[in-house]
Amino acid sequence: MNSSQKSNKDKIQENESYEEVVPYFPHRASSDVRENISHSILQTTSLASLLMGLFDTDRDSRVDNETIFYGITTVRNGVEDINSYISCVTDTVSINASSPANVLSVTMAEMTGKVKDVLDLLHDQFGDDKDCLLNNETIHAIFKSVRTDITKIAGVADDLVGMLEKQQA
Amino acid sequence: MKMPKKLRQQRQRAQLKNPVLINFEHRLCISGGRFDHKGAQPLVEDMTERLRCVLELVRNNFTNNQIEPLSNEVIFHVLTSILMEMADISALIQSFQQSEKQTAETEYIFNTLWQHLDDAKEVIKKLCRDIVSSVIAKENNKQTCQSIDEVKVDIVNINRLFSELCQLEKPIKNKMLKKAG
């Protein structure tokens, strides 16, 4: 066997093992994009509600900072999921720069970006052992606005997917 | 030659329906196109921490009298998100198992890992069923909290076992590829 044949065999082996060991998430990717987004939105807003409930009362009733920190990370990951589902559609369909779909796509990106920024700011508040500087009322209001924004994202995402599906048909 | 319009449309539709196209970069751990067990360890650690904390929040919702209990629907969706995260861990363990040369020791650890994961999933699924059939009530939550505690123990064990696996021998396929390179 000459060296070029050997390197080809290695390349094939490399490709085979690449395909074999890439983790994929079929549970997060049904064929219906709307369904994926809808599930993701419900889960993310419910998690935000769970966290919001903690800040409706006195400081004494809170769980520890670490729990809140990871709770916020979970909400942030939910927003990332929604982004991924939308990208899956926007990346496969060509969107005209002057079309309403492009406006919606840009709006979506801005909205998810803002929600992520707010969550990051909140994240920092619980990232160390120091007491959170914000009072319960403020954090409650932030979670409420995050929840509202995610619901708005759901509406825009639905319109955008509908528009792109029509364009594809 | 330009592809016929009909064929192009068909291909686009097929792409849209292909689940592999969805980019879950924030949930993956691939280094240079291959599953990276070193990258997976902190990811699984993060996932298990998140799961433990969300479970703690759910438990808190059942036990804390100072906070207003959430509706069953909200709790159901939170439990679903927990199941999803567990399925993410499954995907990572599966990839790791595929990239690992099985020895008696690793096989035992993988089996124990799957056992813990299956047990945890089963408890959460039961909680979901109970929520749907309104068996869970704020007044009678002792058993629910016990179940959540059991899941938390499973989650901690999953993290411990995964770290243990990562500290063992390097995956054989990565080793082989390194040699080939």
Detailed description of the structure:
The complex is a heterodimer of chains A (169) and B (181). With 169 residues, chain A is an all-alpha fold. In chain A, 76% of the residues lie in helices and 0% in strands. In chain A, helix 2 (33-54) packs antiparallel against helix 3 (65-92). The longest helix of chain A is centred in the C-terminal third of the chain and has 33 residues, at 136-168. With 181 residues, chain B is an all-alpha fold. In chain B, 73% of the residues lie in helices and 2% in strands. Chain B has six helices and two strands. Chain B has helices at 5-17, 37-63, 72-99, 104-132, 142-167, 172-180, and strands at residues 30-31, 34-35. In chain B, strand 1 (30-31) and strand 2 (34-35) form a beta hairpin. In chain B, helix 4 (104-132) packs antiparallel against helix 5 (142-167). Chain B is elongated, with a radius of gyration of 21 Å. The model of chain B is unreliable at 7-21 and 174-181 (pLDDT under 50). Classes of the chains: A mainly alpha (169), B mainly alpha (181). The interface between A and B is large, with 58 and 59 residues.
